[in-house]
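Input/output pair, single chain:
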Amino acid sequence: MTQDHRLSSQIKQGLSDMCRIWFQELRSVFRDEGVLLFFILLPLGYPLLYSWIYNNEVVHQVPVAIVDLSHSAESRQFIRMTDASSGVRAAYFCNSLDEARTIVGHQQAHGIIYFPSDFATRLNRHEQAHVGVYCDMSLMLTYKAILQTTQAVAMQIGSGIQVSQSTAVTARDEQLTTHPLDVEEVPIFNATGGYGNAILPGVLILILQQSLLLGIGLAAGTAREKNLYEDLVPTSRHHNGIFRIVLGKSLCYFMIYAVMGAYITLCVPRFFHFTAMAQAGPLLALMVPYLLACIFFGMMLSCLVRYRENVMLLVVFTSVPLLFMTGISWPLSNIPGIWQGVAWLFPSTFGIRGFLTINSMGGTLADIQTDYMALWVQVAVYFLATCLVYRFQINQTHRHVLEHRSEHQQAAVQGQPSAPAADERQA
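Output:
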């Protein structure tokens, strides 16, 4: 009976300490402007800004500069057909490439269409002619519009040349000559064919991970600056157990990001009319292990943060590489195996792939079984790693306390004034 009572008292004390740590962490989050910026303002505002930039998924009348050194009927026909399209507008006519580069450099045009002097000559000799297309890569939407328009015009002119040289008698014969294979392109999961529906879902999930890592790292740097020995874990009787510390802190982060995750995955896509076919069950099943994996991953990495500013150097530069390594903007088959292995270390890899499957493709939990199980494996691995990190930090804190007390006792024996004891300064 005494042993059961002791076990019950330990459980109650552990739960009490965990709740106390949760409350202290929650209070420190809302008192720290930097952590509040990463935990609240960044997830609220950054998805809106990014979605607004790519909300216009198709651009029209992109201005281009024309450099026509051929001065022929064929080049003028190419220019007229390009200008008549909805995507490109022939805004400037230049005498040289240098003049056109100057116009593009001043952002007055977003691309250059260049006709060499032998353009018409090569066509009339039945040789392959070349048209140079130079695009400003600062905005992918304009690059896409210029490139696709010029390709379509070149194919149409090429079809006309084929018809003029063929022996076709009827219109059907001409159609078979120019289009022996009739290909009908039907976009299934990206009906608009834009970057918003293709890229934004992955970016939204990546924002959750990166903002969590930034906020947790900043909170860890703040804790080191405030604690007595610049340790991650303070010298307090409530911070003596590993599980109560890890669970108390992670509960605080999970409560905040349960709201942020619902806002980013449910509200933002509907604000900007992106594809949103996710059902409540699969989405909830995916987001729970994803948020937990991100939280424990961030807490594990927080041991590397000595100062508040360090977290920016550790996290910010990884956003673009992590997005590429997921395979949504770069073919997964073209990513080397070593980088695919590196991508498995980050929760965003499996979170983004799973979210795209259930949100953009209408998949179920069975369709994301591999990503779902991988996230739970990361939750277990990073939870154990976080416990080991905090055990090391607790032992280090205790060692500092013992060293300080030893110095205090030696100074007292020698009759010299000493610094206050560790427990007094912490109190």
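Strands lie at 62-68, 88-94, 111-115, 132-135. The longest helix spans residues 369-413.
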